[in-house]
Amino acid sequence: MINQTEDSVRMREALLLAAKGVGTTSPNPPVGAVLYHGNQLIGKGYHEKAGEEHAERRAIRDALERGYADRLKNAVLYVTLEPCSTYGKTPPCTEAILSSEIGRVVYGMEDPDKRNRGRAKALLEARGIQVQGGVEEGACEAFLRPWVRSVETGLPWVTAKVACTLDGRMVRNKERWISGKEALRYAHELRLQSDAILVGGATVRADDPALTIRTPLSTVPMCKQQPWRVVMTRDQSQLPSGAKIFTDAYADRTVVYEQVENFEEMLRELHSRYGVVRLMLECGGTLLRKFLEVNLVQEWMQDMSPIIGGGPFSIVPGDFLPSELHLHEVTVQQAGNDYILHGFMDP
Amino acid sequence: MINQTEDSVRMREALLLAAKGVGTTSPNPPVGAVLYHGNQLIGKGYHEKAGEEHAERRAIRDALERGYADRLKNAVLYVTLEPCSTYGKTPPCTEAILSSEIGRVVYGMEDPDKRNRGRAKALLEARGIQVQGGVEEGACEAFLRPWVRSVETGLPWVTAKVACTLDGRMVRNKERWISGKEALRYAHELRLQSDAILVGGATVRADDPALTIRTPLSTVPMCKQQPWRVVMTRDQSQLPSGAKIFTDAYADRTVVYEQVENFEEMLRELHSRYGVVRLMLECGGTLLRKFLEVNLVQEWMQDMSPIIGGGPFSIVPGDFLPSELHLHEVTVQQAGNDYILHGFMDP
User: Fold this and answer.
1) What sign does the dihedral A278-A284-A289-A294 (CA atoms) show?
2) CA Rg value for chain A
3) pTM metric for this prediction
4) Rounded (to 5) percent helix, strand, coil in chain B
5) What residues in B contact A334, CB-CB < 8 Å?
6) Distance of CA A33 to the CA centre of its chain
7) Which bin fits A3, alpha (ψ -120 to 50), beta or left (φ > 0)?
8) Above 0.95 for ipTM, yes or no?
9) Phi, psi of B135 (to 5 degrees)
10) Alpha-carbon distance B290 to nearest alpha carbon in chain A (angstroms)
11) pLDDT tens readout for residues A176-187
């Protein structure tokens, strides 16, 4: 008898493993897997970096290394995404599953690529393996939304991050920073999940930001590279050549776009050329507004400091947007004295 | 033996009773009282309206009506504010306490009026009654902050209420309202606690608001009058004579101020002439900004709707405020899709 609740619990375990890969797997998806023999966890794994083992293979290898080769035959593999069945940078996971003689495969969501969707299921069932898809499907889909967007549209998932006073202003009169230190830490965690951070030339000139991850080292995966620093500017020659992003140890991770007319085209290139799946906007209001005008933002993170009376720079300056934007799945959390509002843009 | 925790619990009961009077007692404070004989509650009461019985007298009368006359002698009276000891519209409560032969009096905070502070304590102790002040003092003081301000400064306590999009704008493009219905209900609850609501002439012309309390009748005390409607305008002749506030059943509760130069003076008159202790600002950003510039706002209630891209009317339009304002004791609560941020201005 298949216990639905048990399947869900184990899929949630696999999802927690998958989360460890966020920020390092692009352009691949972060995926997690656990192997159970009866009630015993015999192997686990997650995908860490493009070109390296997929979660399924790591879980199988983990079981072998623990000396559970003989138990694989009746084991159940839980994996958050339908296993791959075609050759990429690594051989298909379906082959590894077949050769390990795993008895049952449970996955969360199907491959969003229409050419592959359901293919693993058919292939494995034809070889006598029990397969069940759609377990904790909603949670797996929500988790993989950024990657699904990149597969379906060729565009990165864009998260806008703003810090403002309660009156929606980005600048204070006598203090430089709006965010408190707890909110800043949260913003760095978000950088950790991002493949690239985008700012405008004005921000480079005004703040000379490093745009690097500076969370405690223990929380940063070994394989995490600093995110790409993307600068949009009207005139590249107006950028200070001594700016940190041009001179620090990661200067080769800085990309400048000049006089961009078509934002979508630029985003498409960030994905195809630099493998960017998750892009974080840390620009000022003027540039942010342009992304909002063409509806290219999917996720919104607003750090509000309990201050009133900021300067004339609004997070969305000017008149009405052509179309009002609405958020869903909104949450608010406290971070020190600040409040962080997070949500997703309605399509 | 005096049980400190028991005293606190009973003082909290008295505070809950006091809360029933918020919005109807001005210019008097809302006060609550409970009478205990041993572990038995024998009487309770709260002040409901200026000119009527104070909480202490109501609690004593309640005990008498319940047939507990013989138990008053050893009873303990818990009252949130030091009992009055002078003749006002009603005789002093200290007299009622003395003639009922109550054995012990416990109060929350002292009378903020320096001429009376501690006077009841001395007076009652001289007559052999045990008196203890300062029980749940912090909670009682926080509860009575608006009234204390009115006593100490002659000015009403001002609560600014704004509704805005996430980008801090007060106007939407194609929809009239920003707040959802749950947030609107919350705003009406706030009106219930207010003695007056202030708007600018622009709001009267644009919205023709009624500025009345329209919560479910069951929650409105019988003795609650509609709040004063206060309009600040440059030119009274530009206000539409057919506006609701001039023509509805409460037209005599509408006050117009023209060309106000000195905001503090106007506020002082609202207190002295109309008994306003709690004033709610429901004006637009231009007028709100003027109150903020002269630091005459004590409480902030911001309803944020998860919308981005509102019109050019900011909640605090223009450049930096002369002094940045900071909030403390900030809380955020969800109301339908909206989030309501509430806090108090640092002095």
Assistant:
1) negative
2) 22
3) 0.91
4) 35, 25, 40
5) 332
6) 18
7) beta
8) no
9) -85, 125
10) 12
11) 899 999 999 888
- Of A169, A310, A326, Cβ closest to residue B306: A326
* 3-state SS assignment for residue B225: coil
Residue B336 in contact with partner chain A when CB distance is under 8 A:
no
Average pLDDT for runs of 10 along chain A of length 347: 81 96 95 97 95 94 96 95 88 91 95 88 94 96 97 97 96 91 90 95 95 75 88 96 96 96 98 98 97 98 96 93 96 97 96
A217 at interface of B, judged by CB pairs closer than 8 A: no
Both tokens of residue A18?
């998958």
- CB-based contact B325 A302, cutoff 8 Å: no
Q: Mutate which of A158, A167, A323 to test chain B, going by most B C-beta atoms within 10 A?
A: A167
Q: Which of residues 250-269 of B touch A (CB under 8 A)?
A: none
Confidence grade of residue B206 (pLDDT, cut at 50, 70, 90): very high
Which of A168, A314, A325 lies at the smallest CB-CB distance from B307? A325
Quote the tokens at residue A326: 């609405």
What would the pLDDT profile of B246-297 be if each residue is shown by its tens digit?
Answer: 999 999 999 999 999 999 999 999 999 999 999 999 999 999 999 999 999 9
> In b/e form, how buried is each residue of A206-229, taking b as 16+ CB within 10 angstroms?
eeeeebbbeeeeeebeeeeebbbb
Amino acid sitting at position B63: A
Does the CB of B327 have a partner CB in chain A at under 8 Å?
yes
Cβ pair A332:B337 closer than 8 A: no
Q: What is the mean pLDDT of chain B?
A: 94
The pLDDT value given to residue B217: 61
- Measured between CB atoms, which of A172, A292, A308 is closest to B316? A308
Helix (H) or strand (E) holding A96: helix A93-100
Q: Three-state DSSP class for B112?
A: coil
B322: phi > 0 → left, psi -120 to 50 → alpha, else beta; which? Answer: alpha
How far is A202 from chain B, CA to nearest CA, in Å? 20
Closest of B155, B152, B147 to residue B267, by C-alpha: B155
User: Could you tell me if B227 lies within 8 Å of chain A, comparing CB atoms?
Assistant: no
> What DSSP string runs through A26-76?
TTSPP-EEEEEETTEEEEEEE--STTS--HHHHHHHHHHHTT-GGGGGG-E
- In angstroms, rounded to a whole number, what is the distance separating the alpha carbons of residues A332 and B5? 35
pLDDT at A223: 80
d(CA A189, CA A280): 12
Using the Cβ of B292 and the Cβ atoms of chain A, whether some distance falls under 8 Å is answered with yes
